[in-house]
Amino acid sequence: MVKGSSLWNLYGPTETTIWSALCRVDSKDSRISIGHPIANTQIYILDAHLQPVPIGVPGDLYIGGDGLARGYLNRPDLTKERFIPNPFSDEAGARLYKTGDLARYFPDGNIEFLGRIDGQVKIRGFRIELGEIENVLAQAPGVREAIVLAREDTPGEKRLVAYMVPDRNLSSLTGELRTFLKEKLPEYMVPSAFVELERLPLTPSGKVDRQALPLPDQSEETFVSPRTSIEEALTRIWADILKLERVGIHDNFFHFGGHSLLATHVISGIRSAFQTEIPLRALFEKPTVEELAIAIMERQAEREVHEEELSHVLTELESLSEDETQGYRVEQDK
User: Fold this and answer.
1) Given phi > 0 = left and psi -120 to 50 = alpha, else beta, which region is 287?
2) 305 burial via Cβ count (<10 Å: 0-12, 13-18, 19+)
C-alpha cells in the first residue's frame, strides 16, 4: 500500500443503491469485514424467524433505510418476496430488503460477509454454510484457492468435498488440513474428501464452475490391498456401505463419506461376518481397515481365552462328585 493512501471495503447490492456498509482495511487485519452500515441505513442479521442472531452465529443479512429501492420494475411477485415489512421499525411503510447474503457479527460489532444463502446445505440434520468452510480453508497454510461442495453421488448420502489449489502436494497436506479445520470448525463441517486441482474451473463469466468439479477418487499412491481374510472381509463391508469400487487397508472410513449412522452398519456387518461384537467407539478410535482388523483379532483372542477358561471350569465341575459339587457351590456362594 502506498504511504498516505487508504483502502476501504464497500458492501451493498444494487437494490440499496450500491453502498450500504463500509470498512477501512488495515494491513494488520487478519480477517476482512464489511464494517458497519453507513448513515441512514440499518443492517440486520436474522434467523429464519426474523429474530436477530447472537454474535458469531451466521444469519440472513437484511438492509433497511433511506437507500432502499421501491422494488423491481414490472415484477410485483419478486418485489413482495425480497422487500418485506420492517418488524423493527414503527415508521409506516418501512421495509427491509432480503439480500440473500449470509453474514455474522464479530464481537466488536463489525460484520463478516460469508457468502450467498444458496451455499447453505443440510447434512445428517446439521445446517452447514459452505462459505464458512471455504473461508476457514482459505486461511489454512498451503492453500491458494478452495471451494466446498455437498455431493450426493449416492442417493440419500450427502458428503462434503473440498476442492483446492494447494501450494504443495495434497497428500502431504491433507492431515494438516484436517487438524487445522477441526480446531476451528465442528466435526460435521470438516470435509470427508479433499481433491487437488491445478486450477478451479471457471464459467465464461469468471465464476467457479461447480458443475465441472470432478468426482472424488481414491489415490493410487496410497492404496494397499488387504493381506488377511479379516482385512478382505472388512474391505468388502466398507465398499458395500460406502458405495466404493475398492477399499485399501489404510483408507480412513470417515475420509470417504463415513459417518455415525453408516458406522452402525459396519458394526452390524462385522457381527454378521465374524460373530464378534465390536463397540461402535472402536470404529472412531480405529478408523482404518488395518486398525479395525487388529481390534477384531484381539476380540476374537479374548473370546477364545474366555471360552477355554469356561471349558476348563466345566470340565472340573463334571469331575467332582455330587457332594464335592454341592460344597463347591456353597463356597462360591460365600
Assistant:
1) alpha
2) exposed
Say how far apart CA 149 and CA 234 lie, in whole Å.
29
Residue with cell 446445505: 121
Is the CA virtual torsion 181, 30, 122, 142 positive or negative?
negative
Contact 262, 238 (CB under 8 A): no
Give me the domains of the chain, ranges plus CATH numbers.
7-117 (2.30.38.10), 124-217 (3.30.300.30), 222-310 (1.10.1200.10)
User: Angle CA(190)–CA(254)–CA(270) in degrees, nearest 5?
Assistant: 160
pTM for the model stands at 0.47
- Write the pLDDT tens digit of every residue in 264-316: 999 999 999 998 888 998 888 888 898 899 989 888 888 776 666 666 666 66
117 is written with which cell numbers? 444463502
142: left (phi over 0), alpha (psi -120 to 50) or beta: left
Residues in Cβ contact with 72 at an 8 Å cutoff, skipping those fewer than 6 apart:
78, 79, 82
pLDDT at 116: 75
